[in-house]
UniProtKB/TrEMBL annotation:
Pfam families per the UniProt record, alphabetical: MFS_1 (PF07690)
Keyword terms: Membrane, Transmembrane, Transmembrane helix
Protein name: Major facilitator superfamily (MFS) profile domain-containing protein
GO cellular component: membrane
Record localization: Membrane
PANTHER family linked to this entry: SOLUTE CARRIER FAMILY 22 MEMBER (PTHR24064)
Predominant place of localization: membrane
Gene Ontology terms for molecular function: transmembrane transporter activity
Keyword flag Transmembrane helix: yes
Major facilitator superfamily (MFS) profile domain span: 31-207
Organism for this UniProt entry: Poecilia formosa (Amazon molly)
Membrane topology annotation: Multi-pass membrane protein
Bilayer-crossing regions: 21-43, 149-166, 173-195
PROSITE patterns: MFS, SUGAR_TRANSPORT_1
């Protein structure tokens, strides 16, 4: 131990070599930051409301705006000026079809009854997130939280496996393989067409 202390005194406690190692060792951490922080933006729940069977007709044939369609097809929420995100008016669209001018009258007669969404929603199109892409809202909102759960599970499992692999084959091959895996899974997550596949890739990303 005395020889090591003398060697440190000779080369310096925090010289150019140590500074270089700290900088190089910190570079991979920059990528990990994006893994943690990215979900804040990608997992954000944008404004949404129920899709109605006649929404397209009202937009295209009747020339209504999305705002007007929303005002007459979606009930108001509990807060002033807000709209329900999980309910829509029970309207007989077959009777109001091709009768744009009579729609509001029919809504007045039959639109007081609100029903749950049929599994389809319209989202604010200012930006796309995993929530809007896979419709993870209302009764499926809990699925959005699995994004971080699978990532944390990957971290937990990888802590044991990669530790053994690093002792077995060396730190450098393990770090290089981890960085490559992080990049490949990141690309896969962006291109994933199915949410279960995205969750599996998030697990591998944490691993």
């Amino acid at each position: 131990m005395a020889n090591v202390d003398k060697l440190l005194e000779h080369i310096g406690d925090f010289g150019p070599f140590q500074k270089k190692m700290v900088i190089l060792g910190s570079l991979p951490l920059v990528l990990i930051v994006f893994v943690f922080v990215g979900v804040v933006f990608l997992g954000h729940t944008p404004d949404h409301w129920c899709w109605s069977p006649g929404s397209e007709q009202l937009l295209q044939e009747c020339g209504w705006t999305e705002v007007k369609v929303r005002e007459v097809t979606v009930p108001h929420g509990e807060e002033a000026g807000s709209f329900s995100r999980c309910q829509t008016f029970a309207v007989n669209w077959s009777q109001s079809w091709n009768r744009c001018e009579a729609f509001e009258q029919e809504l007045t007669l039959n639109g007081s009854h609100a029903v749950p969404c049929d599994g389809r929603w319209m989202f604010d199109k200012s930006h796309k997130t995993t929530v809007s892409e896979f419709s993870l809202v209302c009764e499926k909102a809990w699925l959005a939280d699995l994004n971080q759960v699978f990532l944390a599970s990957g971290f937990f499992t990888g802590a044991f496996v990669t530790g053994y692999v690093a002792d077995r084959f060396g730190r450098k091959p393990c770090v290089v393989a981890s960085m490559l895996g992080l990049g490949l899974t990141g690309v896969g997550i962006m291109l994933s067409p199915w949410y279960p596949l995205l969750l599996f890739l998030r697990f591998l990303q944490g691993f």
